[in-house]
Amino acid sequence: MDMMDKLEILSASAKYDVACTSSGVDRAGVKGGIGSCVARGICHSFAADGRCIALLKVLMTNYCIYDCKYCVNRRSNDTRRTAFTPQELAELTIQFYRRNYIEGLFLSSGILKSPDYTCEQMIRVLELLRGEYRFNGYIHVKAIPGADDALLQRMGMLADRMSVNIELPSQQSLHLLAPDKSKSSILRPMGLIRNRIAQNSTDLVRYRHAPKFAPAGQSTQMIIGATPDTDYQILNLTQALYKKYSLKRVFFSAYMPVQEHRLLPALDTKPPLLREHRLYQADWLLRFYGFDASELLDEQHQSFNPLVDPKCNWAINHMEQFPVEVNSAPYEMLLRVPGIGVKSAQRILAARRSSLLDFDGLKRIGVVLKRAQYFLLCKGRMIDGLRVTPDGVLRALISERDYELARLPEEAPEQLSLFERQPTGRDMVQSLTGQL
Amino acid sequence: METAYTYDGSLGGLLCCVFDSYTRHEVPLAILPEGEPTFYRTWQVETVEAHVLRVWNSLGRLSNEVQEWVKRGWFSCVQDREWMIYQFIRLAYQYGARVTSMLTNITVCRLFKAVRMVGNEAGQLIEFLRFSDCGEGLIAVIEPKCIVLPLMQQHFTDRYPEETFLIHDKTNAMALFYRPYQAQILPVEHLEVPAMEAEEQAFRALWRRYYEVAAVEGRENPRCRMGHMPKRFWNHMTEFSMTPAGEPESDALRLAGGPSPSALPG
Questions:
Q1: The whole model's pTM is what?
Q2: What ipTM was assigned to the predicted interfaces of this complex?
């Protein structure tokens, strides 16, 4: 099989892994080697689906001894199988890298022969890259559940980021769809990696040149919509993973029906893209905005509001905390204003040090007021001419794009019309209060 | 008497305008490149190395950020950048280092936007620039909307210390040349890009195939892609490169039975 076919097969089966960031580690290039890393991450391209391409994301092999129902590479699936040799893959990575196509390699694999054997093959690639090519770029590697601890440790010494996919957000779902995996078989390597990273950071304090173990941390991914787990369960699990396992990122992947199976959603199911989007928004709120999962969803509200983002939803339900005075509100409170992000909040902090801010000043420093205006005071006053009616506020808070995404199938236009159907005020109020 | 200054069109010349304006105790009516027609009485500013350094170092003493903003404001090539930078430097002398946080001031705000634009442009080109191996080294062509090579130099020379490469900025007719371990930015009017050899063609084809396969069907989102990767960059990106006939290169290669990279040495 020639290289073109191999690349096609092994990248096609790897693409459903959504993690493709190259962030988390700063490393300068070295003479005699090739490559460097930038902590904020660099995206080199964007695929037709709008997702970033930062790393060469491939499987070592798509042969697999497991039979997970949701996976294209499962043993019982009739598909073309192949494998890279370590030399081939290392050479391809370097050739792509020096042309500035990629930031590095994302290496995952089906399980060939045994977890240990697979792990050894992957380590061989990393050793070639780090050793022979003196490659200093980014490497993300999937820890293989069930592989020997020593092998996982070796992997971590060579890679920048490691990840173990949780895939399904509950033990029950795992049991049904991935009978060969269990919660513990996934959490065990995750715990091992966490402990090694923690141990490594104390080593680094003692010996400055101690080799680094997975310096960009670890991440995981969950499939959304293949099982009946709710947003509430998923978000709580996410928060627990950040806290207990010190993960750098949790990724969500809307389930794309690729398999026909009685336990899975039908093949014509649309991927729950809006749900995935809302989960990412909430994930950002947890990581950068100081929110707690319990503020966003609770036992009574297990799903995200389809029409407004989680932050707006929180703000609408906590109107007693608004409006806030731009010139005196603490950073944490500015971050909670819908429409104000980390950059805007930081800019407000910088600008108000030199002079009192008014709404024109806010616009000038680049704060978008479309949504924020309903929650802000400048020098004790709301923006001039703003009429605050429940309808108006809601209309301003719902983005057109979300409205499109949230449109239920039965709402889809049945008859051609010159005018697009606009949501009425009542629709929105009903949907926000949960009556829809 | 009120005067307009004319200068030699370089950043150094502009800094000398600042110097002259302070030594002559006057605010010029305008700062114009030499030869630009004007009704004002003009004062020809001479570019003196000692004056350039004095102004430049004085900015550095305020803060590195002030210095960096002046440099990037110059690179931004926005309309009337001379006047914007001149006014900013006056403000900087008046308020000191905190001038860069006075974002509600119209001049500071304009310069801030220009500085951000330059940084974003350089950042995007660091992402979207593509090298081709022409046998003797790597070549990339870019068409940025402002001057970015000085801001990209550090990144690429650090990343590829053992490569020999050239980045040609078509818009500003200049190029970054690098061979281990020295880099230089020189004016380049025209550059003949040599024809690609088979090995290079093969890697390009591989990359294009990888790019096509990486998209998940059923999630197409052209608006999202364009938002992240504006179309003006596509011309010079291997993913979208075309043959002279306007066919995507990959198809042409497939029809011609291009070589398989596995058959290649190395």
A1: 0.86
A2: 0.88
